[in-house]
Amino acid sequence: MVGGEEEVLPLSLIGLLGFATVVLLAVLLLHGYLWWRLVRSTTRPGRTRRLLTLGVVLLAALPVGAVLLRREDSTLSTVVQWVGFSWLGVAFYLFLTLLALEPVRFLLRGRFREPDGPATVAEDEQVVASGTRRDAATRAESGTAPEPEGTGRGGPGGPRPEARGEPLTAALQGPAAGLRVAGGKGVLGGEDGVLLPSRRLFLARGLAATAGAVALATAGTGAYLANSAPAVRRVPITLAGLDPALEGLRIVTFSDGHLSALYGGRRFERLVETVNAQQPDVVAIVGDLVDGELSELREEVAPLADLVSGQGVYFVTGNHEYFVDTTAWLRHLPTLGVQVLRNERVPIVRGGASVDLAGIDDRTALSSGVPGHGADLDRALDGRDDAVPLVLMAHQPVQVEQAAAAGVGLQVSGHTHGGQLWPFDYAVRLDQPAVQGLSRVGDTQLYVTTGAGFWGPPMRIGARPEVAVVELRAP
C-alpha cells in the first residue's frame, strides 16, 4: 500500500504519462486510417492533397491538446476541449463507417475492373502511352511522318470521338486520339478538354461522402442526447429479508456527472431537479461526480445543496475523484449536505424497520497514493446484523465480486456510462461484469446506471443519461 505523500506525484505522473501514451497512439492510428481513406484515396498528388494532409494533422492534434489541457482553467482550455473532443467523436464514427464500407469498396472495385464498359482516361493512361510509343516506332520504320498536331481525327480540326459515337477506349487506342498525359492526368481534347476522374477515384469520393454524412448525423444525434434531460428509469427490486414497513423505499441514484468545463451549469441544475422530482427517501451518488479541482468547480457543484431527501444524500468515490485533490473534495461535499461513505455504513430506518446502506472507496483508491484510501468491504460490514438487508454503493460494477462473497443483497454502481459511444459497451464488458441495467451475481443483485454526464466526446450513442429510481420490494 502506498502511504507516503512523497509518492503521490510519481504515481500520478506515471499514470498521466501512460494514459497520454495510449491516447496518442490511438489518435495516430485513427487519423492515419482517415487520411488514407479520405485524403490519399480521394485526391491525386498535388497541392490539394498537401493541404488536406495538413488539415488531418491539425485535427489529430486537437484531441491530444484537449486531454493535455483538461486540468487548465482557462477559456482556451474550454474551447480546445469542446472542439477536440467533439471532433474525436466525429472521427470515431467516420472510422467505423469507413470500416463498414470496406467490403462495399472491395466489391465495387472488382466490378470496375470488368471490361464490359468504356474505360476511363486515368485507367488507360499506360495503355495510351505504350500505344503512342509503338505507333512512333512503326512510323520510324516505315518512314512515315507523324501527323501535324490538330489534323488528326481527335484534334481541333476533326470531330471528337464522342461526337462520332465511338467508345472512349477505342478512341484512346488510335495513334492520333488527341489525348495528352500531363502530370499523371488524362485530358481529352487538348487545352479545352474535360478532366475525367477515374472510376476508382469516383468510388473513393462517393464512399468518403457517405461516411461523412453518416458520421455527422450520428455524432449530432449523440450530442443532442448527451445534453438532453436525463431519462428516469424505475427499477423495482425485491430484496430478501426486507421488512414490509420498508416497502416502496426509493433510493434515487445517479453517477458520473463528470462536472468539468464541458458539463455543468444548467444541465447539472436540471439533474438535481429531476432527482428531487422523484421524492427520494435516499439519494445515492455512486462516484465520478467531478472531473476537476474544487477551485475550478465550486460554483458548478453548488446545486447539490438543493437536493431534498427524506433520509439523506450519500456519496462514494469513483476513479476520477483520485485524479484531482481528493481530500479537498471530500471535505467540501459535507458542506453541501452530502455525506461521504468511506468503507462505512448507515442505517435507513422507517416504521421501526431498517436496511443498511454501505459505501466503499473505488477500487483504484489503493493505488492512487492518497493516504488511507482503498476499498475495504470488511471494514464497512464489520459488526452488522446479518438479518438486516444490505444495499452497497460501489462505483465500479466489478466490485460486486466481493459483494457477492459477503452476502450483499443489492449493489448500485456506475462507471461504465453504459458504453457512452456504441460499440464501446462491448469493450467495457472485458473489464466489468455488466454495462447497464439490472443483473445478478450469485445471490447479489447488481444495478448499473448509465450515468448523468459524459467523459471525452460530449456525445452519447446507445446509452442515454439517466436517473435511476430503485424501489425496494419485500419478498
Q: Are there runs of 5+ residues with pLDDT below 50, and where?
A: 1-14, 114-132, 149-157, 160-196
Largest sheet entry:
6 strands, mixed
Report the mean per-residue pLDDT as an integer. 83
Structural class: alpha/beta
Q: Class of the largest domain, according to the CATH hierarchy? A: Alpha Beta
- According to CATH, the fold-level topology of the largest domain is Purple Acid Phosphatase, chain A, domain 2
The outline comes out as: elongated
| CATH architecture field of the largest domain | 4-Layer Sandwich
- Superfamily (CATH H level) name of the largest domain: Metallo-dependent phosphatases
Strand-and-helix sequence, N→C? HHHHHEEEHEEHEHEHEEEHEHEHEEE
Contiguous helical run count = 12
Query: How many beta-strand segments?
Result: 15
Alpha-carbon distance between the two ends: 42 Å
Summarize the structure.
This protein has 475 residues and is α/β, with parallel strands linked by helices.
Please provide a written account of the structure.
With 475 residues, this protein is of the alpha/beta class. It has three domains: 5-114 and 202-218, no CATH class; 122-196, no CATH class; 230-473, Metallo-dependent phosphatases (Purple Acid Phosphatase, chain A, domain 2). It is built from twelve helices and 15 strands. The strands form three sheets. The protein has a six-stranded mixed β-sheet with strand order 4-15-5-6-7-8, with helices on one face. α1 (8-40) packs antiparallel against α2 (47-68), α2 crosses α3 and α3 packs antiparallel against α6. The model is unreliable at 1-14, 114-132, 149-157 and 160-196 (pLDDT under 50).
